[in-house]
Write a structure and sequence with these properties.
Blueprint (H helix, E strand, L loop, with lengths): L1 E3 L8 E6 L4 E5 L1 H8 L6 H11 L6 H13 L8 H22 L2 E7 L2 H7 L9 H20 L1 H5 L8 H28 L7 E6 L2 E6 L10 H26 L6 H11 L1 H9 L7 H10 L4 H18 L11 H32 L2 H29 L8 H18 L5 E10 L2 E5 L4 E6 L6 E2 L4 E6 L1 H22 L5 H6 L1 H22 L2 E3 L4 E4 L10 E2 L4 E7 L3 E7 L12 E6 L7 E8 L22 E4 L2 E4 L4 E6 L11 E8 L5 H17 L2
Antiparallel strand pairs: 1-2, 2-3, 4-5, 5-6, 7-16, 7-22, 8-15, 9-11, 9-14, 10-13, 11-12, 13-15, 16-21, 17-18, 17-22, 18-21, 19-20
Helix pairs in contact: 6-9, 8-9, 8-10, 9-10, 9-11, 9-12, 13-14, 13-16, 14-15, 17-19
Amino acid sequence: MHAGPDQQDGSPGWVLHDPAANRFFLLGWASFEMLSRWGARDAGRLMKAVNTQTTLTLDMHDIHHLVQFLRENQLLQTESSEELWRLHQHRHRGYLSWLLSHYLFFRIPLVRPDALLARLLPWINWVFRPGFWWLMALITLSGLFMVSQQWDAFTHTFSSYGGWMAAVGIAVALSVAKVVHELGHAFTARHFGCRVPAMGIAFLVMVPVLYTDTNDAWKLPSRRQRLLIGGAGMMAELTLASCATLLWCFLPDSPFRAGIFLLASTTWLATLAINASPFMRFDGYFLLSDLLQMPNLHARSFALARWHLRRVLLGLDDPEPEHFSASRRRGLLIFAWLTWLYRLVIFTSIAFLVYHLFFKTLGIILLMVELGWFVVRPFVNELQVWWRRRHDLRWGFRTWRTLFFLTVIVLFLAVPWQRGVSVPAVMDAAQSQAIYVPEDALVGQVNVHDGDWVQQGQVLAVLTSDSLDYQIAQAKVIAANLAWQVAQQPFSKGLDEQGAALEKLALAAQQQIESLLRQQARLTLTAPFAGRIADASDTLKPGTVVVQGERLMQVLGKEGMRGEGWVDEDTVTTLRPGDAAFFVPDSGETSAIRCKVGQVDRLNQTTLDQPLLASVYGGGIPVQIINERLVPINTIFRVRLDACETRLSPEREMAGKVVLQSEHRSFLQRAWRWLVVSLGREAGL
């Protein structure tokens, strides 16, 4: 045992070191006095010795509590076969728990650096003197000032390098930063007389990170020294970043300068973002624990939060796990809930990361195990405690309030009250046809403009083509010549010898003329149906050259609209032709349009033919561009909207949302179907 930090009530504290496992336990005054007289070997004599030799007043409950603590942490010498069997069973049950908890994070010690650190420490003791930190402050200010003079070059340093040079620069910079970080912990711990038994590599979701074992710092009674050891890694990286910032200003443009830029700008920010967080057991957690003088901060705040939760929801009047001031209690409760929320996000993210790292079948298994162990299990454990204590519940304001809100939540989730589902859609005129240029031509005559009403068959514009006119004239000359030759066959031996072949050539020439004339007739653009002109092209002017396939105008029917929506695989099964639908345009240029569900496609769309709705163009359907095609990221199905209410047809396609009145389904039904469909799809079933 070693002298430790004083307790919050001012009583002395002690640290119990388990050298076999290199673990440390903080003991209070009573526990220390009992362990100091452990040689009594009898609970009664031990209690009497403590009560007579100190000002403490203990009872058997205190001794049993200490024994239970020592037994749970395997600090007692085991003599009976029952105890050995209990330890064996505990270890056997713990293998699966250990595997589930540690396959995502495990350590591999590589070196035992304590002796080397002791030899090197005299050479770097100057780092722990105030003069060094005044020098670092000067270097930092100088570097920041010089970088501000060439800020544009600084921010664009790394963009000049790509490929393997960028990869090497990142790898070297990260390696240097992390080695300096861990050496900061190690040398600071050795400076204050602590052993550093191991340094090595830890794997976090199979990503290697360095670690340093500085558990010996718990021996130190000085909170300042423990804080310096905990923060030494981040301080070392900040020192490295300051030097790198100043060095960058004097280096020529090169990959090495890009690596220095990473040390000056990126690595220390990533370190602060991860290590400074107190919600996981990184540097920030231990710094906060020492700052608040609260070892086991997570466990103690969690116990307080569970006590408060049971008190608020169930009305249980249990004694507070520990007595804290009102402000400290409030802070610990907020900290506990923030930690739970943070871990929920982190563990869920890790679960899906693990899923994507492995092949589908194993990924799904690991995803379910990860979510079950780290996310679902804590909820189940707490609910089990509630169930075991159901006989302690008493009906009162808190329990009735909890029952009321629980009932509201269950009804909200389980009752199929929600019917409408909103999906991306596009609405157009019921009759709509674009007029395109049939072939390269010259605009000769324009008879309509935007907004003009036309009748079916009305001439909209006339195009001319000198090339086509020349081909027609040439074909007529050839046909006339062949016709003359056919007529002269009876009078010319040479022509007569060609026989029927000459007649076939003449017929083919006549057919060529007819084909060219039909092609020329297509240059006269007519209205396919009665309606109005919309979206006329600026090139639709006499004398303008237009090319084949160019869009000249749109002809819209007088009345009526039609549309298309795209739904996911969960919604498509709930739709039936004839269901009501309401289209709401994004532009707000018209009120909601009432339609009915028409044809519902049962085959998913592999490409999206409506760019208006593509996410890459600001639409609501997530897509990616593959081989110049819009490929949906998720499974979507087309739903046609028919029998829309009679209105003036829109001049152009309108993107928006359509609310489909499908069959009633509760949130729980939707969630269950989504889960089943997702698992089946990902498993390839």
